[in-house]
Amino acid sequence: MSTELRVGLLGCGVVGQGVLRLSQDNARAIEARLGRPVRIQRVYLRPTSKARPHLPAALISDDPRHVYAADDIDIVVELMGGIETAGQLIEAALRAGKPVVTANKALLAERAHELIALANQCGLDLYFEAAVGGGIPVIRTLRESLASDGVTAIRAILNGTSNYILSQMSRRGLGFAEALKGAQEAGFAEADPTLDVGGGDAAHKLAILTTLAFGVRLKTAQIITEGITNVDAIDIQFAKRFGYVFKPLAIAEAFEDGSLGLRVHPALVPESSIMAHVTDALNTVHIAAEALGPCILTGRGAGAGPTAVSVVSDVIDIGRNLLAKTAGRVPQRAFREEVMSDVRIRDRGARQGEFYMRFTVEDRPGVLAEIAGILGQESVSIAHLVQDAPDQGANAAVEVVLLTHAAREAAVEQALSRIDQLPHVRAPARRFRIEEG
Amino acid sequence: MSTELRVGLLGCGVVGQGVLRLSQDNARAIEARLGRPVRIQRVYLRPTSKARPHLPAALISDDPRHVYAADDIDIVVELMGGIETAGQLIEAALRAGKPVVTANKALLAERAHELIALANQCGLDLYFEAAVGGGIPVIRTLRESLASDGVTAIRAILNGTSNYILSQMSRRGLGFAEALKGAQEAGFAEADPTLDVGGGDAAHKLAILTTLAFGVRLKTAQIITEGITNVDAIDIQFAKRFGYVFKPLAIAEAFEDGSLGLRVHPALVPESSIMAHVTDALNTVHIAAEALGPCILTGRGAGAGPTAVSVVSDVIDIGRNLLAKTAGRVPQRAFREEVMSDVRIRDRGARQGEFYMRFTVEDRPGVLAEIAGILGQESVSIAHLVQDAPDQGANAAVEVVLLTHAAREAAVEQALSRIDQLPHVRAPARRFRIEEG
Question: Which of A157, A315, B51, B146 has its Cα between 20 and 30 A from that of A73?
Answer without folding.
Answer: B146
